[in-house]
Amino acid sequence: MPKYVYDFAEGNRFMADLLGGKGANLAEMSVMGLPVPPGFTITTEACRAYLATGAAPDGLAAEVSEHLHRLELSLGRKLGQVDEPLLVAVRSGARFSMPGMMDTVLDIGLTDDSVAGLAAWSGDERLAWDSYRRLVQMFGTTVLGVDAGYFAAALRDAKQAKGVDGDLGLDAGDLRALTARFKDIVREHAGREFPQDPREQLDLAIASVFSSWHTDRARTYRRAEHIPDDLGTAVNVCAMVFGNLGDDSGTGVAFTRDPATGAPGVYGDYLPNAQGEDVVAGIRNTLPLHRLADLQPRAYQQLMDIMRTLEGHYHDLCDIEFTIERRKLWMLQTRVGKRTAAAAFRIADALREEGLIDADEALRRVTGAQLAQLMFPRFGDTERAPIATGVAASPGAAVGEVVFDSATAVQRAEQGAAVILVRRETNPDDLDGLIHARGVLTSRGGKTSHAAVVARGLGRTCVCGAESLTIDTEARRFTTADGTIVAEGDVISVDGTAGAVYLGELDVVPSPVVDYFEGRRPADRDDLLRAVDRIVRHADRRGRLEVRANADTAEDAHRARLLGAKGIGLCRTEHMFLGDRRVLVERLILAADDAARKDALAALLPLQRADFTRILEEMDGLPVTIRLLDPPLHEFLPDRTQLTARVAVAKALGQGDTQEDLLRAVDRLHEQNPMLGTRGVRLGLVIPELYDLQVRAIAEAAVARVRAGGTPRAEIMIPLVGDARELEIVAGRARAVLASVAAESGVDVPHEIGTMIELPRAALTAGRIATTARFFSFGTNDLTQTVWGFSRDDVEGSFFPVYLAEGVFTASPFETIDREGVGTLIDIAVHEGRAARPDLELGVCGEHGGDPASIRFFHEVGLDYVSCSPFRVPVARLEAGRAAVGNTAVDSR
Ligand code: PEP
Ligand code: MG
Q1: In angstroms, rounded to a whole number, what is the distance separating the alpha carbons of residues 69 and 26?
Q2: Which residues surround ligand 2, an ion (CB under 5 A)?
């Protein structure tokens, strides 16, 4: 039978899975010899067993008895005994801190008999009755499920009857009467008496803490913090100590460093003559901790010594809760304290400088998510309520005037206005608008919708899937849930970090960390920048995964290089066919014969070549993976419904050019499921001249770079391959084009040809594909879409909230790699691919390439690089280093 109960002296801080964070650290402090009130911890395993069956597991009651007996022996008092009773606190404590989410019951052991014993021992009758009424109230609400409002109303009545404002105005007699009233409330609303058996109180309180794991608020908190639902909570049973025994008692919280800034020095608050929950409830103003030095010099000195000991022991910022009972200091809790992102970097670097931790450990102490937070501009504090909320798709803070289409976005931006592009959803046609906008707001789609992916790539702020908004592009306005109308030109503020939208202008604070990365601000004059610089450079030394960027333009490539990218892992080429060039694609699609098609292609060639030349120049000496055209061709043609209407009108008016040819082409290319239709390598087979053109443009750009003295390293990447034969055909033609450019130019064009692995079939047949491909790049966006059968453009806004609530997954698989499904396919492809071609280069270019948890997986599975949007490159560098040093540090969540 498992052991369900541990005395504090039996545990240690590394047992948090079993004892919860609080229990593990209470055990650690006990073993260190610090003054912890004696007690024991009931394990998370017992909680899981209780939650599975609805009853305490066999043997738990006997073990609790044994440990309770030991506790009673050590203190020489029995639980709830009539004279000088032992009272205990029953507190929840899960693996990860979930502040205030689960139950706590104090003063267990008080009964109609023992309340007099407490009065006699403490010499304070008021304290005794105040403790008893608190127990009945807390027990009644949390354990017996009585509505807290009844107790609050009775307390209010008591104060009114007495004509006092605060609880302190009630004397012992009033509190005795109030306790009786509270017991009546329990009888009326719980259908039972308040239990007079101390052990029954204890057992019910323990069961109630177990059950509180499943309250709505605890579930909601776990979902927000990505804490698994099946961990369960431990229960800590601990002898009560009293901070409310007069002016020589009190309670407080303290930090060994400032958790907001990371600055050294002790911070905290103290409340004389009070219990812990009084501090939280804010019923009286607390004193700054240093005032304790005057009030209780000895206890203060002891506290300072203990805090130094704790920081030296944990080698990290600790936060603590303490109580002073008649001048005696008791430690009620410690843990590695939560901190802001800036404090995390400063503290890690400071501890390394102080020699408490080494550089690897400093790297483990910070996260990519924290670095990302430091890189976003953000809004200052606001009292304003948002007009809408949606998916926080691309972080940052953007303020601008509302525009409803790309052309207006470009036009207003060129006139110097800051604009927010508002669309139901975006498509490749909106790229120009996205580039010119500060932020994007859509009412449909999730984190991998077009708007989200492109906005992240461009470093634009984006909130998408704000479904409460009704967007009327024709009328050029949107309406919020409460009927507020926002018209084109009105100013809004979009918070892409929180997923909120505000009317009007909020103040924006720019990020000094981005200025540092982009070389506009030196690191040596600011301790935060110095810390970031040292830690990220150490990550670069340790990381095995290389970090490349997804960049489609020379400007992006430039920025990516500044931010530390070691090449381009994905250069999407679709935008090179949009804007002014769209007419050329239209001509290509409409071409009646070979000659017309050749003409159209010839017009595109110099444009593409110029694009590639500039990108290769920016990334000179580094690999540039250029993906041949992927999207279905209809994306380059006008919208079918609008065109149908236009043609009908033109015909009715008898106009010359009715655009019927174009409509026929649009109809011909129309597909029910374009993402599963004629796209990717299939285009290369159906319209081979298109890929020929792109390969030629790449080859000629490389030749131009060689002639200019550069070192181009182009990699040609074929998308959406599902079978080796597809790749063989397309790669064969590409090699022929490369050979003819080499013959024409006399320059041996350096190149590699590889493929994306973004279909399950490609992963499963990777060995055959690798006989042709020199590299694989995992397209985890499409791979996730096809493995799950989830439309990446639709599902995040529709049923994902339900899936997250039901625990189907704790994070969207489009955001964090689904190790079990998608990850298994990647693993297969890595092994099959490397077996066929040992020097196969392996990378990932889906959105997951910039996600911290996914980067760890890519490291483990043995990829060579991750590729992500330029803005996320520093985060990926940090996480690549963290993956390499492993993460053994105590989790501080
Ligand atoms: C992918 O599918 O992961 C990918 C990178 O390609 P895209 O997002 O352009 O489909
Ligand atoms: Mg793809």
Answers
A1: 19
A2: 758, 779, 782
